[in-house]
Amino acid sequence: MEVPAASDIVARFELVGLRYGDGAEVLRDISLQLSAGSFHFLLGASGAGKTSLLRLLYLAMKPTRGRFVLFGTEIGQAPRPALAALRRRIGIVFQDFRLLPQLSLYDNVAAPLRIAGVGEDRLRLTVLPLLARMGLEPLAQSRPAALSGGQQQLAAIARAVIVRPRLLIADEPTASVDAALSLRLIELFQELNRLGTTVLIATHNEPLAARFPHPRLRLDGGRLVAEAPGEPLLLTPSATRATPRTASAGVP
Amino acid sequence: MRGWLQRRRHGLAPALDGSDGPFVPALVGVLVYLAVIVTAAMLLVGGTAGRWSDALQARFTVQLATDTTQPEPAPGDDAADPETGGGRLAAALATIRAIPQVARALPMAENRLAAQLQPWLGGATIPSSLLPIVIEVELRPGSQDEAAAVRARLLAAMPDASVLEGPALLEPALRLMRGIEALTAFMLAVLTATLAACVVFATRARLAARAETIEILHLLGADDRVLVGLMARHALRTALIGGLAGFVLAAATMAAFAALAGGSDGVGTTRFALSPIGWAAVAALPFAAAVIAVLTARLTAGRALTALP
């Protein structure tokens, strides 16, 4: 198996554990690396730890143990300003959309660009075509509360992809939309992936994931299991056999 | 650069904006109202005390001891002339007037001197030879700081003379005024601390109310400076609205009091009106309050944001 160069690795977990407060670990011995330009589904039952793993990836939390390197930066030792800069490389589609209720749809989608310091003229030229493509342009001045669940989902996705992120993380992005739109959304993520964005989609919709030829990760009780028809995900070749023990023990 | 920042923050600002209701601006308004009144009182008391002190420092009297060994001068005698008062008075006047800081030195007329002694002597008539020789001295404007040196020089030149210092007579009143001035300065400090505390609570309340929004912006990559700037922007607006309203009300209050208190005591020392510089100082208070609010909000928000990863 060919080992990717360090610069090709977007994220790397080494024996990472996570617990909330004094509770039991919700993630245990996670060892995983995501290569640049890869596309993965993250599967697992409710409570398996999918959202917790994504929260680590989009830097909402830090591991309670182990080593996590994102874009070449060791997260446990990175200063705060560096973390903010790393977050700006990530697009996030939250499970519950998390649109800002005080802002219009246009301003919600434009928020990551404004945070990145993009000027208003260029911002307009970027946001409006994307809204048009998502079929949201007529709703540009509407507040999120005036949108349907599906429209809010589309807006959340638009906000995540507007900055052409290096890593796109989507937590149940198809949960609020019908089957046809679900397919369309995954195709949209694939299109972004073809442009070089690394994509990780957490979903409980296994039939939908099965329709695409992308490797699947499975979380079970906070441990990672690989179901990889494609590239290696875990740190050792044996880890691709999809046994939790092998996966967790695979750190060099 | 500034324009870019304004555009960027303007686009995100509504996410953290929203009215706090009238409570916070009203509280800031009341604090600024009190601060303006207290500052005006401090300036008026301090200015008046200073002017009194200067005026009294600039005026004093020199008393020559009565020479009881000399016979009472006859009418027409040179020594009976209140202007020259004989050789001692003439010599004293010459000595005093030779001092550069002295603007004027005149012997006190006998009738004024007798009038000043009348409360102690009743209706008794005192021979003019027994009246002390008193010279009223006034320093040139701007020489108040040299008053002590002038008096020392006089006493050195005329060892038998004594100097009655004006400020000594009003020292208790001046001390009281200085005390009031210090008290108003302390009250201003208390009001400033209260304003800061008010902004701390308002900022914390806003951070709690907007915790979800702040977390989302944080996860989208907004660094602490942007979020702190948004909080400070809101604090600035709230403080300016409340502060300017408080200032307008305080100015109206002062104008009403000035009208009630009337003009001056005739020598311009107790006029109940601020100088242009005084008005500029109190007019700066709403803006000073805004600066305090912004700094406090920045500090509070900055500390609170460290709770986020």
Strands of the biggest beta sheet of chain A: in what spatial order? 6-7-8-3-9-10
Structural class of chain B: alpha+beta
Placed side by side, the strands forming the largest sheet of chain B appear as 2-3-1-4
Q: By helix and strand content of chain A, what is the structural category? A: alpha/beta
Q: Secondary-structure element order of chain B, as H and E?
A: HHEHEHEHEHHHHH
Q: What is the number of E strands of chain A? A: 10
Low-confidence regions of chain A: 235-252
| Span of the ends, CA to CA of chain B | 29 Å
Element order, helices and strands of chain A? EEEHEEHEHHHEHEHEEH
Helix content of chain B: 55-70%
Report the biggest beta sheet of chain B as strand number plus sense, adding barrel if it closes: 4 strands, antiparallel
Poorly predicted runs of 5 or more residues of chain B: 1-9, 265-269
Radius of gyration of chain B: 32 Å
Mean pLDDT of chain B: 79
How many helices of chain A?
8
Round the mean pLDDT of chain A to the nearest integer and report it: 84
3D architecture notes:
The complex is a heterodimer of chains A (252) and B (309). Chain A is of the alpha/beta class and 252 residues long. Chain A is 32% helix and 24% strand. In chain A, the strands form two sheets. Chain A has a six-stranded mixed sheet, sandwiched between helices. Chain B is of the alpha+beta class. Chain B has two domains: 2-53 and 172-306, no CATH class; 66-159, 2-Layer Sandwich (Alpha-Beta Plaits), CATH 3.30.70. Helix content of chain B is 66%, strand content 8%. A four-stranded antiparallel sheet of chain B has the order 2-3-1-4. The radius of gyration of chain B is 32 Å and the shape is elongated. Chain B starts with a helix and ends with a helix. In chain B, 31% of the residues are buried. At the A-B interface, helix 2 and helix 3 of A face helix 1 and helix 7 of B.
